[in-house]
Write a structure and sequence with these properties.
Length: about 300
C-alpha cells in the first residue's frame, strides 16, 4: 500500500516538474523573442540614423563646396558601414553596442566636418561681400576716372588751343632787284623780282619752344601758285607752297622777314594773295596789288 502511495507522489512530482520545465521554456523563448525584436528595432533605428547622415551629405554636396572630396569620402564611409550592418544576419547586444559607438563616432566626425564647411561658407560670404564692395568702389572710381579723363581731355584741348601760335602785322611788298643787287620796293608787275613778307609771332608761354616750320603760298590774280617749290599737307589737304623757312621760337615776340624770289617774266598785273602757315596751321593772309609799268619805264 505504501509503495502505491509513494508511486503516486513521485508521479505527481514529476508532473509538476514537467509543467515547471515547460513553463520556463515557454517564458524563456518569449523573452528571447522579445529581446531579438528589441535588438532588430534598435538596428533599424541605427540604419535610419545612418540614412539621415547620408541625406545630410547629399544636401551639402548639392550646394557645391571646396570640401567636396572630404564630404564624398565621409559619405562613402557611412554607406559602407550601413550596408555591412544591413548584411549582418546575426544580431546581438554586442553588435548593437558596437554599432551605436560607431554611429556616435561618425556623428562626431560629421559635426566637425560640417562646422568646417560652415566656417568656409561664412568666410566666402564675407569675401563675396568684400568683392561686391570692391566692385562698387572700382565702378565708382571708373566713373570718376572717366569724368576726370573727360575733364582732362577738355583741359588738354583748351591748352592745345591756347598753345596755337598766332601772328600779327602780316604784310608783303613787291621788290625789284637793282644792278647793285639791292632790293627796292615796287608796285609794277614787270619789275617784280621778289616779295618781302614780314610778320610778328606773338608771345605764347603755352607753346613749346623750338623750331617752327613756316610756309608761304603766293597766288596770282588767277589763283595760280607762283614759284611753287613743293607741297605741304594742311588739315588733310595738299597745297603747293612758294617758300619755306624754319623759325627758332623761344616763347617771346619774334619778328620774321622772308624774301621770296619770283621770275618777273612770269608775273602778271593784279592782286597777289600771300598766305602764311606756321607750325602746321594757317595764320594769316595779305594782298599785294601789282600794276602795269608807267610808260614802260617804272
Amino acid at each position: 500500500m505504501e509503495n502505491k502511495q509513494s508511486g503516486k507522489v513521485i508521479t505527481i512530482l514529476l508532473g509538476v516538474l514537467l509543467v515547471a520545465v515547460l513553463g520556463y521554456t515557454f517564458y524563456s523563448n518569449a523573452e528571447n523573442e522579445k529581446m531579438t525584436a528589441d535588438l532588430e528595432t534598435e538596428k533599424a533605428e541605427i540604419k535610419s540614423d545612418l540614412n539621415k547622415m547620408i541625406a545630410q551629405y547629399d544636401a551639402k554636396l548639392a550646394e557645391g563646396t571646396s570640401l567636396k572630396a572630404k564630404l564624398t569620402a565621409a559619405r562613402k564611409d557611412i554607406i559602407t558601414y550601413r550596408d555591412s550592418l544591413t548584411n549582418e544576419k546575426k544580431i546581438s547586444y554586442n553588435l548593437i553596442r558596437r554599432s551605436k559607438n560607431r554611429v556616435y563616432s561618425l556623428d562626431a566626425k560629421n559635426k566637425a566636418l560640417f562646422a568646417e564647411l560652415e566656417a568656409l561658407r561664412v568666410e566666402n560670404k564675407k569675401l563675396n561681400t568684400e568683392i561686391v564692395v570692391a566692385k562698387e568702389t572700382i565702378e565708382t572710381q571708373a566713373v570718376e576716372n572717366a569724368k576726370l579723363t573727360g575733364e582732362n581731355k577738355v583741359l588738354v584741348d583748351k591748352v592745345a588751343i591756347g598753345a596755337v601760335l598766332n601772328i600779327s602785322n602780316l604784310s608783303a611788298v613787291a621788290m625789284k632787284k637793282l644792278s647793285s643787287g639791292a632790293l627796292k620796293e615796287t608796285n609794277r608787275y614787270r619789275k617784280t623780282d621778289a616779295f618781302r613778307i614780314s610778320f610778328k609771332i606773338n608771345k605764347n608761354e603755352l607753346t613749346l619752344s623750338g623750331d617752327k616750320p613756316a610756309y608761304f603760298v603766293i597766288k596770282d590774280a588767277a589763283g595760280t601758285v607762283v614759284s611753287a617749290k613743293g607741297k605741304i599737307n594742311i588739315n588733310g589737304s595738299e597745297l603747293y607752297y612758294s617758300d619755306t623757312t624754319v623759325i627758332d621760337y623761344q616763347n617771346i615776340d619774334t619778328e620774321v622777314i622772308i624774301i621770296t624770289d619770283v621770275n618777273r617774266k612770269e608775273t602778271e598785273k593784279g592782286a597777289y594773295t600771300i598766305s602764311a602757315f606756321l607750325d602746321g596751321k594757317a595764320v594769316g593772309n595779305t594782298t599785294v596789288q601789282l600794276k602795269e609799268s608807267f610808260l614802260g619805264v617804272f
